[in-house]
Amino acid sequence: MAYQHTYNSKGTEHAERYEFDIHTHTIASGHGSSATITDMAKAARSRNLKMLGISDHGPATLGGGRVSYFMNLKYAQRERLGIKMLYGAEANIINFRGNLDLTDKVLQGLDYVIASMHPPTLKPGSAEENTAAYINAMKNPHVSVIGHCDDTKFPIDPFKLFAAAMENHVLLEINNSSLSPEGYRGDTKYTDLVLLNLSVHFNYPVLFSSDSHGIKHVGDFTYAADAARLAKVPRNLILNYSSKALMSFLAGK
Question: Which terminus of the chain has a lower count of CB atoms within 10 Å, N or C?
Fold first, then answer.
């Protein structure tokens, strides 16, 4: 399992142990990575993960995965180097009606689907429009996760979004890349803390994601974990501690 060194209230160092990361990108995403799926599996093994999800960008992203790539993932190895493999997609939300850049026929063949908004594929709208786009995307029965909904370029109503996530059995991710000092989505901490506090209030789980493009950050949830500790989110509400819990959640979709 992935180890990250943290400190308890007495200042004693201990290691957090995470079992999986399912928001990661290979060379098929078209930018930020030259890593193959096997390279990513090697990185997951080196960080003691049990399970790895590959979620390359959909075709609306410049250089992103082609439809044929996603359709053929069903033939990919289910285990690599001792790591259980899941194959998904980070599909682009392409309009405020929540339509995605991959068809239902393609999505139904994947293990999970992350739906996200990116400025090159959708011009940001108002908080009302952006929230509606995410909620409409959630209504697609194949969508399991809403990706980096903390992006300041796409303001949202976090309360409406969280309520819709619960209603549609969808996870909201706490994106480590967004919270990183090297992040490019603006100051996302406020939105992430609101979502984490709503998780505690409603006893509904959240998902940590590295959003690693390539091997460097696979299984790294340093900043997401810091935010979760600040919000006092209990372990049972952070799915990354248990691959079994994630699989159970996905099965209930």
Answer: C
